[in-house]
Design brief:
Helix content is 77%, strand content 0%.
């Protein structure tokens, strides 16, 4: 019932989100490289907007999936007569999840602010401007936050569904 395509007892959307977490960081790095070293401002803008939209859709579908399945604990212990994890193991997985949520909750706010400011303050077509220094700071903070979201999300998936 819950089986995703990665072969573990996670839901389909959990597997989609895990794949997105694996793919997002290389695309993010390429986007940063394109603007920092190649001065491809328009490409950077397009990639950031694309990443934002894809992540927004993935997170919304993921949240709907979690509501339909009753949350991650229900997915892990889908058969109450034969629980896959003990209460102690579930507690350990929950601690990993809480660490992940620190980053997962802050990322859309930080990234959204970075995007909002950039779309509002950079000229069209995109070129360096007075906002560039602040944008670079916000961009790096967003990139680090998103990378930590990816890393901790993958760790959660491993603890909850793989090991």
């Amino acid at each position: 019932m819950y089986r995703g395509f990665l072969g573990y007892d996670a839901s389909l959307m959990l597997d989609v989100v895990v794949c997105a977490l694996v793919l997002i960081v290389p695309v993010l790095c390429y986007s940063i490289w394109a603007v920092k070293f190649r001065r491809q401002y328009h490409l950077h803008k397009k990639l950031q907007i694309l990443l934002s939209l894809l992540l927004l859709v993935a997170v919304l579908l993921f949240e709907v999936d979690m509501q339909l399945h009753g949350g991650w604990q229900a997915i892990i212990n889908k058969d109450p007569s034969k629980p896959r994890m003990s209460p102690e193991e579930l507690s350990e997985v929950a601690q990993v999840l809480y660490i992940h949520l620190v980053f997962a909750i802050s990322t859309p706010f930080l990234w959204g602010w970075t995007m909002f400011e950039a779309l509002r303050k950079f000229p069209r077509p995109v070129t360096p401007a007075r906002h560039s220094r602040k944008h670079a700071f916000l961009g790096w903070a967003s990139a680090i936050d998103l990378t930590m979201t990816s890393i901790t999300g993958l760790i959660f998936y491993y603890y909850a569904f793989v090991r």
